[in-house]
Amino acid sequence: MPVRPTATLPALLALSLAAAATLTACGSGSGSDPDTIKVSFKQSTDNSIKVMDTYLADIKKQFEKANPGKKVEFVPIKAPDSEYYTKLQQMLRSPKTAPDLVYEDTFLINSDITSGYLKPLDPYLAKWQDWNQFIDTAKEAAKGEDGKTYGIPDGTDTRGLWFSKDIFEKAGLPADWQPRTWNDVLDAARTIKRKAPDVIPLNVYTGKPVGEAATMQTFEMLLYGTTGGTTTDDPLYDRSAKKWITGSQGFKDALTFVETLYKEKLGPDVSDALDPNVMTRVRGEWLPQGKLAIALDGSWLPQDWLPGSGHAWPQWSDELGLAAMPTQNGQAPGKVSMSGGWTWSVPAKAANPDLAFEFVKTMQTKANAQKWYVANSGIAVRKDVAKDPSYVTAQPGIKFFTDLVASTHYRPAYPAYPKVSTAVQEAMEGVTTGDMSVEDAAKGYDEELKAAADDQVIEK
Amino acid sequence: MTRARSLNHAPTRSLNRSLNHAPTRSLSRALPVTPAVVLLLLFLAGPIAYCAYIAFTDLQLTGQAEDSFVGFDNFRTAFGDEAFLNAVWLTLVFTVVSALLGQNTLGLALAALMQRASKPVRTLVGGIVITAWVLPEVVAGFLLYAFFRREGTLNAILGWLGLPTQNWLFTLPILAVSFANVWRGTAFSMLVYSAALNEIPKEITEAAEVDGAGGWRRMWHITLPMIRRSIGTNLMLITLQTLSVFGLIWVMTRGGPGGKSQTLPLFMYEEAFQKSMIGYGTAVALLLLVVGSLFSVVYLRLLRTEV
After folding, report:
1. First vs last C-alpha separation in chain B
2. Which of A269, A209, A202 is nearest to B150 (CA)?
3. What distance in Å separates residue B61's CA from the closest CA in chain A?
4. CB of B108 closer than 8 Å to CB of B196
5. Are A341 and A378 in contact (CB under 8 A)?
């Protein structure tokens, strides 16, 4: 720049500063109106699915009617899960962009609590009668390491085995199938492979392409069935020592299950299993078209088979059977399930936290909560709804999956969890492709775990 | 470099002289560019400087109460990280195969052939190639995913010809995405080379032909040296484009299976947004910038023209 620093420079600087000031001023024009709350939620990327939009519009109407002069403004984020988290976290970083109420996945909530993004709700909960109706395990889902509660769960989910009655009949397996051990599951798959060679015997998600689904729907469903089965007995994270547990025997056994399944070709072709679109195929193609005998999957599947979803399958409840995932050797309580779910949380930088909580109260009345559980194929976390006959019979499968809540586990969703989960997926992918032995994959996990948890690990 | 300095010398001196004489005039001359300078500083230099800064911190998007300055830790981590080294290697493979060998030579070949072709053929071929180029990256990604997948078009054709089929995205993922990038990006090289070839005076090629030089010799001794500058420019541009390809690979393979097609941009995305390690991801981004500059330097040296 051949411009000499004469009077030009100060003049330019002054100009730039003035310009910069005006430019940044446009950015902060959001202005928090004390009578309006902004609510952010995850909008489905599938335009035909409007379940949440419809439900929230209804709540908004109720809320504005009950609170004259108050307004609700929605700030939906249309993205797949992982991108939704990223976008939300960026919004939570600044008071200018933070909404008053956000929809948080329990998978990440502890991470966000540690970052100081969320507000503890205990003072509000102390004055809210309905909180006593929530089941204890669900209350745990949004508890920080400091023992405070940072979110109100709007339902939960459980997981189990879905199987095709038709294929079972061909393979000579019982229509009321209920495996007692992991071996029973594998044996059923082997039988199907022999008697119905043209179908996929058993699908379990694996590897990094499907992300958290591999960790939770498959790996943890196995791992949490290797221990005593109490909710305090966590095989991933030692809650008393506050340390992550390195590859234990149970960990290796769970990897061995995955390895066996893919080695004996009891699952989908490895290349299909590691295709990022496999989840869509299981729900939209393999199960409805009778190409898959058993699927280890979540309670929410029927959402995809509702009329208007693009692959409606009204007769699914006649064609599919349900069985609980057994523990490794049938040890008590005999069955295992993992639960996750989402919560409503108030950002630390929210402008109208009090009003936001009022909105949560409207959402979580018994009637509204029940409406939401049913619409969303969710599992009730309110005791009064779980007991209500009209809820239990609202949809086939609800009773089965609600009963699993008694033997379910929540993930140790502490800040390091997302990284731990990725390490689990890498180990799974290694044994799925056969690139790694179980021993090597478990060793690799130990190394990754140390890095992910800042050396806060313990051997068991 | 010396030549450049001596070239710039004279105007600088005269400019300085005019500045000394008329500061007001130079101010009024600088005035029109200030808005642009301010905007550039604000929206380009600012974020870049901020990026360079956070590459030296352990900033996370979530799961951390406060971040701190960690010096070169992120870079040390990267060079000790097998996944990073694998990503660097795959980035080089992807760039060399799809940009240097694929897009570049195919683009030149198409341009050379189209020189001789009749107008309808030229229009048709050009149209097809350019269509592939103007498609949004995600659309191209899905098309090629459909082409390569196990029940895809490619295997259908091979099966019909009685050749063995396989799941290309699983067995040779980096080659599949490289091919996809060639398919999508060749048009750019073709256009650059078409323009360059049109610049070559007809007399020269005709003279060579009269002297009995065959097609290959004409290409090697006349055409290539004459379009050397375009080759340099083109290589530089397509290399930088290819280094930053993300959507195409993301749609086709997500960098899998087992990281076998995880180039640096995908690795960065995973570290920064899926594992929330913004600091580390940004450090890798800076390293990607270094890879890009290394390529550029090599091209500049190789193709330095003696004018």
Report:
1. 14
2. A269
3. 7
4. no
5. yes
- What is the phi/psi pair of residue A78, to 5°? -95, 100
Nearest-CA residue of chain A relative to B275?
A: A419
Question: Is the backbone peptide bond immediately before A333 cis, with ω within 30 degrees of 0?
Answer: yes
A323 touches chain B (CB under 8 A): no
Please judge whether B19 and A419 are an interchain contact, meaning their C-beta atoms are less than 8 angstroms apart.
no
pLDDT over 70 (residue A3): no
Q: Amino acid identity, residue B222?
A: I
Q: Are A432 and A258 in contact (CB under 8 A)?
A: yes
pLDDT band of A229, cuts 50, 70, 90: low
How many beta carbons lie within 10 A of that of residue B13, not counting itself? Answer: 11
B-chain CB neighbours of A116 within 8 Å are: 65
Q: In what order do the strands lie in the sheet with A159-164?
A: A200-203, A292-298, A159-164, A320-323
Q: How many H-runs (helices) and E-runs (strands) does chain B carry?
A: 19, 0
In the 8-state DSSP scheme, what is residue A324? P
Please report which helix (H) or strand (E) contains residue A242, including its range. none
Q: How far apart are CA A106 and CA A35, in angstroms?
A: 29
Two tokens at A209?
């392409």
Whole-number pLDDT of residue A16 = 46
Q: Tokens for A417?
A: 């969890």
Phi, psi of A452 (to 5 degrees): -70, -35
pLDDT per position as a tens digit, A36-67: 999 999 987 777 778 889 999 999 999 999 99
Nearest to A384 by CA among A404, A407, A360, A368: A368
Element (H, E) at A295: strand A292-298
Give yes or no for residue A238 having a pLDDT over 60.
yes
Interchain proximity B258–A111, CB inside 8 Å: no
A19, A422, A433: residue with CB nearest B35: A19
- For A274, half-sphere exposure in the C-beta direction (CA atoms, 13 angstrom radius) is 29
Q: Is residue A312 within 8 Å of A391, Cβ to Cβ?
A: no
pLDDT digits (tens, 9 = 90+) for A297-348: 999 898 888 776 677 898 999 999 999 999 999 988 899 999 998 999 999 9
Torsion of CA B205, B206, B208, B212, to 10 degrees: 130
SS3 A202: strand
Length, in residues, of chain B: 307
Residue from B65, B81, B47, B66 nearest B280 by CA? B81
CA angle B142, B144, B146 (to 5 degrees): 70
What's the pTM value of the predicted model, to 2 decimals? 0.76
Pairing label, strands A342-345, A237-238: unpaired
Beta bridge partners of A36: A71
Cβ neighbourhood burial of A176 (10 Å; 0-12, 13-18, 19+): exposed
Contacts 24+ apart (CB under 8 A), A183-190: A184/A326, A185/A161, A185/A294, A185/A325, A185/A326, A186/A257, A186/A260, A186/A261, A186/A266, A188/A294, A189/A261, A189/A266, A189/A293, A189/A294, A190/A264, A190/A266
Residues near A448 by Cβ (< 8 Å), separated by ≥ 6? A419, A422, A423, A426
